[in-house]
Amino acid sequence: SLCSLGRLKNGPSGNTRSAETGPFFGLPRLQKLPSNLQKGENCLKRAEKSLDFWRSPSHPKEPVDLKVPFTSLQAVKVLLESHQIDYSILIEDVQALLDEESREMQGNRQREYSNRNFNYGAYHNLDTIYRAMDDIVMDHPQIVSKLQIGQTYEKRPMFVLKFSTGGNRRPAIWIDAGIHAREWVTQATALWTAKKIASDFGKDPSVTALLNKMDIFLLVVANPDGYAYSHTNNRMWRKTRSRIPGSRCVGVDPNRNWNAGFGGPGASNDPCSDSYRGPSANSEVEVRSMVDFVKRHGNVKAFISIHSYSQFLMYPYGYKCTKPKDAEELDRVGKSAADDLTSLYGTRYRVGPICSVIYQASGGSIDWSYDYGIKYSFAFELRDTGRHGFLLPANQIIPTAQETWLGLKKIMEHVRDHPY
């Protein structure tokens, strides 16, 4: 049966050594599961411990992307073909992409060391990102400051950059990136965005007008432990690094851990799953730190979370499939932002509520923020649509950041011009 997929060995999502080192053959895309294979789709969902879903099973007509260990390749092919499920290979050799990414990063580190120039078009480890944030603060002290909002499970600091022209508890925009560790283009995009906001103040009338009325809080790395681990041990790591009592498996999916329909559909109760919700809502200190900051501030008017990949711009809800009361306005703003984003390089985004654009998923950040009263709650899924997936080449970082900036700016302008 298709449920045999759940018993494949050496899957990449667990915590064994073989799981972390590969080699991995590639990324098959299952093309539009037939509707009569609903049972098979559910089996695929239960196979998460053995297969690394890059694009999870959602609707029967949507494709599914998964990474397959080389040792399991033939078994997966046989199962798919025996059930007449069409598939295509998106990435022939994931390991080759991992190796190339690693070589690029090493070369970039050497160049930066020799010429003292920070490269925003490269992937960097956590310490380097934190140093770059310090440099932005040092170069633009009149509008940028750094706040520590908490400490991770492994005692790393969580830093937010505050962009402000003064005043106390002014209306604010919250932006976070990298809540899922392996989505490296998001942390890189957020860092570029920080530099862009700081540099454009006083030059770009829109940014200047925005910061004269509102503050921006930008959390460049929302999951520092997971991000550090994705550099040192397992490039495909998604979760936090907290220890789960009674389980050999590590970590919680921080975007299933918010108090919004917690424990509902689209979140696993299995600690070994990549979408494990955690033992309770806000069990993760990283999530608690964000929640506490937003609550303490008390005047956050927009909450924007940046993910990858798939090229979506989404608004609530994810934990239920009913539209929010502000759906019409959120859809209009989202489509306008997506149009601006597309205008630069032609990158097309799909806009809509989480539940209809991807799938029902409970415990997500923007559902919590919306239910908390933050009307303008959005989630971006950045490039691409699967050609490279989480391993987006570094030469796409700056184009991705540039186009995303146009979308972000459109949302922020709307928030500025529509106070509530």
UniProtKB/TrEMBL annotation:
Source superkingdom: Eukaryota
Region Disordered: start-end pairs: 1-25
CC terms in the record's Gene Ontology section: extracellular space
Domain called Peptidase M14: residue spans: 122-415
Secreted among keywords: yes
Active-site residues, Swiss-Prot/TrEMBL: 381
Record localization: Secreted
Keyword terms: Carboxypeptidase, Disulfide bond, Hydrolase, Metal-binding, Metalloprotease, Protease, Secreted, Signal, Zinc
One Pfam family recorded for the sequence: Peptidase_M14
One GO MF term: zinc ion binding
Cofactor(s) this protein cannot do without: Zn(2+)
GO biological process: proteolysis
Keyword Metal-binding in annotation: yes
Protein family membership: Belongs to the peptidase M14 family.
Annotated protein name in UniProt: Carboxypeptidase A2
Source organism per UniProt: Naja naja
Gene: CPA2
